[in-house]
């Protein structure tokens, strides 16, 4: 299992469109993908779960990947977050 902490840096945080991009990307990998904020950990393939984290700008989240292609999944998800979900903000 791989774990990495990262800060959400797009202006609107994990709003609906950003959450949809995250869950779509997570769902494209065969491994388990989790995202956690503090004590709350949700399946990153569930848009409702991701949105329930209410992670706004500046929120630190932990990404966990486990299983086949876990490294590729982690790199892709970190790249998406670092790219501010393609929002350019």
How do the helices and strands line up, and which of them pair or pack?
Elements: E1 2-7, H1 16-27, E2 32-37, E3 40-43, H2 47-52, E4 60-66, H3 70-82
Antiparallel strand pairs: 1-4, 2-3, 2-4
Helix pairs in contact: 1-3
Can you describe this structure?
The structure is a single chain. This protein is an alpha+beta fold and 89 residues long. The chain contains 3 helices and 4 strands, in the order E-H-E-E-H-E-H. Strands 1-4-2-3 form a 4-stranded antiparallel sheet, covered by helices on one side. Strand 2 and strand 3 form a beta hairpin. It is globular.
In spatial order, strands of the major sheet run 1-4-2-3
| H/E topology pattern | EHEEHEH
The end-to-end span amounts to 31 Å
Strand content: 25-35%
The biggest beta sheet is recorded as: 4 strands, antiparallel
Properties at a glance:
alpha+beta, 26% strand, 89 residues
Please give a quick description of this structure.
This protein has three helices and four strands, in the order βαββαβα. It has about 90 residues and is an alpha+beta fold.
């Amino acid at each position: 299992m791989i774990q990495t902490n990262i800060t959400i840096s797009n202006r609107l945080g994990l709003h609906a469109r950003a959450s949809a991009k995250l869950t779509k990307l997570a769902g494209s990998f065969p491994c388990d993908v989790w995202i956690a904020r503090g004590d709350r950990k949700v399946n990153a393939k569930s848009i409702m779960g991701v949105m329930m984290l209410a992670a706004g700008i500046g929120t630190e989240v932990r990404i966990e990947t486990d299983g086949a292609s876990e490294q590729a999944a982690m790199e892709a998800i970190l790249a998406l977050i670092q790219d501010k979900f393609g929002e350019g903000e």
